[in-house]
Amino acid sequence: MIFLYEDELYKNFLPLVYLRPIFNLYCGRLSLYQKIRKLYHNEQLNFLVRPLLENYVQENYSNGTVNDIPKNDSISLFISARTILKQNIDVAGKEEIFINRENEIIGFRVKNSRIKQIPINIRTILNWKLPKRQVNAISAKYLWNLIELNSQELISDFSSFKNLGKISKHAFIWGDIEKLYLGRDAEIEAGSVIDLRQGPIYIDDNVKVLALSKIVGPSYIGNNSIIDQVKITGGTTIGANCRVSGEVESSIFQGCINKHHYGFIGHSYIGEWVNLGAGTTNSDLKNNYSSVKVHLGKKEIDSGQTKVGCYIGDHSKTAIGTMIPTGAVIGIFANVLESSKLIRDFYWSKGKRWQIEQALNTAKSVMLRRDKILTRAEESLIRKLYKIK
Fold it and tell me: What is the mean pLDDT of residues 26-53?
């Protein structure tokens, strides 16, 4: 058996993983789950996640078990949800721990009976005192790692040239056309610039690249998205059903995001169902060019990087003209009216929370605009999070 597991470091990926498991995050064109699925396409993948996410994962990944480990001494393969594997690891074999070149644990093969708690604790793994074997893999520890890795993963995820859509003869294609994938019913309008000189560009099905847009590779545009007079710089992933204008640099949009106005987003990770009001702009570089600190829980962690934007949780909204500081963290269901480096979940205004029924009604209304519904498992998860916040 194969299990994708979360460990205690899931907290480093908040607020983006309040409403999804870590393996649902994107890096490149694919989610972390999809990357593992490509390597093990004939195997059943099972999941070990936080108890809060059990129903959500079961609803969205019904082909595998959730938090259900056989109580026996059979040996299974366990792969960290934070891992990008670059090689297959045999499912069958002796007990051992797998590490990457940086000596980070990326998984293990052990008897099922060893697993006593979920999320799995890294210290527990080390206490098993099992032999270690190095494999070719990358382990993300923080959200900014996914941004940092995004360019190389976009290149790695690119498969082959295809043109199933329509390119205006008045569009500008710079570089090797064989680095462009254009999906079914996708369209690139006149005056648009597709710059393939620095890497491939994958434009998925039914994407509209409207006139005067510029996309620089490596980049990915998810299906049913509208790219409207925007400058997209390389190292950017735009998920499905997004509306994007203005400027986006080296960022990941999870999907169903409305940024249909001017403004800059750079070196950031934006959750689903976020609405960025006109003029919303984030800083991704401090004036003194020093490394950026980011709030993780009650601590502020030095990222060790000079280019760090913002992290915005699902269903949050920014007012027009919002200026977001370097390294800002904005929680889920936050109503952003002012500039702040840390905005809590369900924030409405100073001293006030967004009332849960109002928040849910807004979410349902927004989702209907993309022909989506808030499922029972999603609503239950949001209500539980609201109670413990």
Answer: 96
| Residues 362, 247 within the same domain | yes
pLDDT band, very low/low/confident/very high, at 297 (cuts 50, 70, 90): confident
Question: Pick from 84, 118, 141: which residue ends a domain?
Answer: 141
* pTM for this model (two decimals): 0.96
| Count of domains for the chain | 2
pLDDT tens per residue across span 150-163: 999 999 999 889 99
Q: Which residue has 């369209």 as its token pair?
A: 187
Do 332 and 362 reside in the same domain of the chain?
yes
- The residue count for the chain: 389
> What range does the domain containing 287 cover?
149-388
